[in-house]
Specification:
The chain has eleven helices and 13 strands. By secondary structure, the chain is α/β, with parallel strands linked by helices.
């Protein structure tokens, strides 16, 4: 089998920063450090941090008095910050800077008197955090049909922002529908879309031209990992989302010569290597990394952790 490795794949800069914030907090303040929600959507990452002394909670009241608290990469609502502040809990905010940028953009649009539209998936932590950051009503949509159902006057000043784990390709049709229906609508430039989401999706589309089957390493609750798998299917290839090597079904690759392999933005490289080893148990394997975008972006840590 030829294993074609997508480039780029796996961790993005926002995920690297979030994990490092928890690890440095544990080094500086000692265990336990409390993390609200999964720091990123990957069980292996979460379990590794648990072993080092991180305790994961869903609500602020689950943290004891004086606890050091970390907010996940997905971002949180203002009410969560306020709940921590009311108890005097020291907070390290691991929100991805690109998510924070969406929050800033949305607040600016609202200050200018525009009605806010958010393109994203209901129930996703990032979406809940973004809505909770905006002191105004937010219309959440995800499809072209949702645009048609919006109960907003045609000439009302509007603005839109998008969930960062959606790419330019994911949102294009919805944005076009918004602009076709409403006469006064603005939104961020496409260069403001999360670079990691777009790069990984583009790599999978390119990989589909060379592969017989697609394997995506990532968690079931990872939006960007699920989307990579969907793209493979849209391109006409059998595509499977697997949490790790133990989830690999040999029947998926039986008789296949070219195995496309990638990982979502919250999946560590070690899981990719384990899948390659699992494939080697089935027969001889050569590994061929694709040419692709080389990501060298780094995000600064909170000031108190930089020393």
């Amino acid at each position: 089998m030829r294993v074609i490795l997508a480039q780029p794949r796996g961790f993005c800069a926002g995920v690297v920063r979030a994990i490092e914030i928890v690890e440095r907090a544990l080094d500086k303040y000692q265990a336990p450090v409390y993390v609200r929600h999964e720091i990123v959507h990957n069980r292996h990452v979460v379990d590794s941090l648990k072993e080092k002394g991180a305790i994961f909670i869903e609500e602020i009241d689950q943290a004891p008095d004086g606890a050091h608290l970390v907010f996940s990469a997905h971002g949180v609502a203002k009410s969560v910050f306020n709940a921590a502040a009311s108890r005097g809990l020291p907070v390290l905010d691991a929100t991805c800077p690109l998510v924070s940028k969406v929050h800033t953009q949305a607040k600016r649009y609202v200050r200018y008197g525009r009605t806010m539209i958010l393109i994203g998936h209901a129930g996703h932590p990032e979406v809940e955090g973004t809505i909770g950051q905006i002191d105004a009503p937010v219309h959440l949509i995800s499809t072209v049909a949702d645009v048609a159902a919006l109960d907003i006057p045609i000439g009302q000043p509007l603005a839109y922002v998008t969930q960062t784990t959606l790419s330019v390709d994911d949102t294009k049709a919805v944005i076009e529908a918004l602009k076709a229906r409403f006469t006064d609508i603005v939104g961020p430039d496409t260069t403001d879309i999360c670079y990691a989401t777009q790069h990984r999706q583009t790599a999978v589309r390119d990989m589909c031209k060379m592969a017989d089957v697609i394997l995506v390493v990532g968690a079931k609750n990872s939006s960007n990992s699920n989307r990579l798998c969907e793209i493979g299917r849209e391109e006409g290839l059998p595509s499977y989302l697997i949490a790790d090597a133990s989830a690999l079904d040999p029947a998926w690759v039986e008789g296949k010569e070219r195995i496309g392999l990638t990982a979502g933005a919250s999946a560590p490289e070690e899981l990719i290597l384990e899948v390659i080893e699992a494939l080697r148990q089935l027969g001889p394997v050569s590994v061929e990394p694709m040419d692709g975008v080389k990501e060298d972006i780094e995000f600064r840590l909170p000031a108190e952790l930089r020393a």
